[in-house]
């Protein structure tokens, strides 16, 4: 059963506009959330994270918002650039096992020049 | 910088072969993971290890085994490769040792094709 869900398989955005990627989770024990970016034929690279004690974390053009009551998080990229075109994975972890990360199915972002 | 290195970028194996995928990390991390990535399914955890010689099953361990004889090395073994194991395999590591809320660092991936 998928505990982390990304319901949009793909998203296209014009260069310079905002990209909003969404993620939902079901397990209320998750307390740490991450976004990874993946290019084809490469491993995922960490982008940004947020702890459950916060509702927003910002790093340059990237901002992650967490709504715990709705079990929802989103990644905002502004302004979007063509180099942002990649697959974005949402992940979550709780204090179990080896802090395993549970991943969503990914959203392919295409930024159109 | 943390480096996680997977021994092969691309592999082609025959059905029934025993396949070894090797992963090495250089940051003295305690936790190591093997995932596979398939279109529409995201990253699914096969096995993980939180210490030398320790291993735990993930969500899809069937048809796989692992070995962790040294802290820096985590091997994934396909006992008898089948075509449904054609996939991108990703190794990752994270600090562990009581540290929580840390990201995992991934290798570059191994694209395995079983024919």
What tags apply to this protein structure?
heterodimer, A: 113 residues, mainly beta, six-stranded mixed beta sheet, five-stranded antiparallel beta sheet, 0% helix, B: 115 residues, seven-stranded mixed beta sheet, four-stranded antiparallel beta sheet
Mean pLDDT of chain A, rounded to whole units? 93
Shape, principal axes of CA atoms of chain A? globular
Low-pLDDT regions of chain B: none
The helix/strand class of chain A is mainly beta
Percentage of residues assigned to helices of chain A:
under 10%
Q: What's the gyration radius of chain A in Å?
A: 13 Å
Give the tally of β-strands of chain A: 11
Can you tell me about this structure?
The complex is a heterodimer of chains A (113) and B (115). The model of chain A has no long low-confidence stretch (mean pLDDT 93). In chain A, the strands form two sheets. In chain A, strands 2, 4, 5, 9, 10 and 11 form a six-stranded mixed β-sheet that branches. Chain A has a five-stranded antiparallel β-sheet with strand order 1-3-8-7-6, with no helix packed on it. Chain A has strands spanning 4-5, 10-14, 19-25, 32-38, 45-51, 56-59, 62-67, 72-77, 86-93, 102-103, 107-112. Chain A contains no helices and eleven strands. With 113 residues, chain A is an all-beta fold. Chain A is globular, with a radius of gyration of 13 Å. Chain B is built from no helices and eleven strands. The termini of chain B are far apart. Chain B has strands at residues 4-6, 10-13, 19-25, 31-38, 42-49, 56-57, 64-70, 73-78, 87-94, 105-106, 110-114. In chain B, strands 2, 4, 5, 6, 9, 10 and 11 form a seven-stranded mixed β-sheet that branches. In chain B, strands 1-3-8-7 form a four-stranded antiparallel β-sheet, with no helix packed on it. In chain B, 0% of the residues lie in helices and 52% in strands. In chain B, β7 and β8 (73-78) form a beta hairpin. Chain B is globular and about 40 Å long. By secondary structure, chain B is mostly beta strands. The A-B interface holds A 4, 6, 9, 31-32, 34, 36, 41-46, 49, 51, 89, 91, 93, 95, 97-106 and B 4, 9, 30-31, 33, 35, 40-45, 48-50, 56, 58, 90, 92, 94, 96, 100-109, 111.
């Amino acid at each position: 059963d998928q505990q982390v869900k990304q319901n949009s398989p793909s998203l296209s955005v014009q260069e310079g506009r905002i990209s909003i990627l969404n993620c939902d989770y079901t397990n209320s024990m998750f307390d740490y959330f991450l976004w990874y970016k993946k290019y084809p034929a490469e491993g995922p690279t960490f982008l940004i994270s947020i702890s459950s004690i916060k509702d927003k974390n910002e790093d340059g053009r990237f901002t992650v918002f967490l709504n715990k009551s709705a079990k929802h998080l989103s990644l905002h990229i502004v302004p979007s650039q063509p180099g942002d075109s990649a697959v974005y994975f949402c992940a979550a972890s709780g204090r179990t096992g080896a802090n395993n990360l549970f991943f969503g199915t990914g959203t392919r972002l295409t930024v159109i020049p | 910088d943390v480096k996680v290195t997977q021994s092969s970028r691309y592999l082609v194996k025959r059905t029934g072969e025993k396949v070894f995928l090797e992963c090495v990390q250089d940051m003295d991390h305690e936790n190591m993971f093997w995932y596979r990535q398939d279109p529409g399914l995201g990253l699914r955890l096969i096995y993980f290890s939180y210490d030398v010689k320790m291993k735990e099953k993930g969500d899809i361990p069937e048809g796989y085994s692992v070995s962790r004889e040294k802290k820096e090395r985590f091997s994934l073994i396909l006992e008898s490769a089948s075509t449904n194991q054609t996939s991108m395999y990703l190794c990752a590591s994270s600090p562990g040792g009581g540290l929580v809320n840390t990201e995992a660092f991934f290798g570059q991936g191994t694209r395995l094709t079983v024919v």
